[in-house]
Amino acid sequence: MDAINRVNTNIPMAPMKAAEKPAPQAEAAPAEAKDSFVSTVLSEARESAVKVGNITSSSVGGALGIAGLTAGLYAGAAGGALFLGALGMGIGPVVAAVSTKGLLSFLGTSFATTGLLAKAGIAIGGVSTGLGAFQVARKSAELVGKLPGMLIGGAVGLVTGTIHAIENKVGGK
What we know:
Layout: H1 14-19, H2 37-99, H3 103-170
């Protein structure tokens, strides 16, 4: 660096590169045989646990997802009808005051607007709440259903993996 704190770029890089030589690597410990008895058993147990866990997860998740969908449809339809029906009761008289003549026409338009918005609320609330409830119930049930399946699959995989490893050691395959 000079007096103004600028870096001098004309310095040869050879001394620095010499210091960057990689350190000699220590000899790696000999790796275990890839086809050892324990690794064969554990590998098969792991594969079996994942397969069975995925099956139970999908089954439980789908069943409880449909139950959540049904409950969500009802709750959403009721909530949508109440919310948009109340909104229609507020908007209906305003629309009727501007567009009708006479008391019966005023009441008819008010109730028609209320009914129309309540029907829209049933459709919108039912579908949106139903889909949301389906997703929440399905994902929750998948998480809950995966553990028992993985435990069962792991136990079965340990037994079958042990049998296959013994066959391999004896020379069956």
